[in-house]
Amino acid sequence: MGNSQSPATNPRYVSAARSFTHTELDDLKSLFVSLAAQSQSHGQYVSPSVFQAFFGLHGPLGNRLFDLVTQNRKDQKLTFEDLVIAKGTYEKGSKDDIEEFIYRLLDVNSDGVVGSMGGDLKLDRIGVKSDLEAVLAVMLDDISSQTNSEPAYRPHEDIIESFLNAATFSMTNEGCAESCMSFEDFRSWCSLLPSVRKYLGSLLMPSDSGRPGHQVPHLMHLENIDSSMIIAKREYAWHIGGALPQQELEQWNLLYHSAVHGLSFNTFLGNISSNGAIYV
Hints:
The protein has 13 helices and 2 strands; from the N terminus they run H-H-H-H-H-H-H-H-H-H-E-H-E-H-H.
């Protein structure tokens, strides 16, 4: 019926399945069976809510990823074949395949273009946040472990604005009120923001697996320092960590603060010497 095909005759499934070992396919099948059971679908499909809960996704980014994984059928049903095809592209594909998937993921409004209206709470033509603003808001809420559905809740406004200012929108399209982000614009943006690229490139890994792009270093400082005096917030540490290897993202210790150690340059040098990698 419709455009459904059996796994044996679906060329996209056959091609994607070849990129996995037998063990990996068995593991994917076990995962699908478990999620389908939670979806109460008699083993036939995974529901959007179960999919998003397992992968730790929410909001427009979670909705968009589910649509992409289910090949935009809009039937609210993720099949085993969908899962294999998506992970085969998103995790096993070529660099171009993976980045094209992520680029399409940014189009949370599903209008075929990646746009940003910028400015102060400007809305796009259908009355929702611009694609990039919506994606960044979900990401930063996730990283800072804050969520709030109130319309006026915008704790990351300055960070979002900075990230948007780093982007180029060189493509003109009648679907955009302003210029849109081309695929090459997206690639250039990711080269400037490796933390964003890492985050968006690991969303189909289980949320409890320490997936790349989601780690925030544990920021350690003396108990007598008011945390409001610390410049290195979780979001800033996450952003810096995007350009660092995994082993340097476990714990960061505050070695010097002028309010505690004074303004002596010699003290500053003494505190940071012989302490391995230092971030100033």
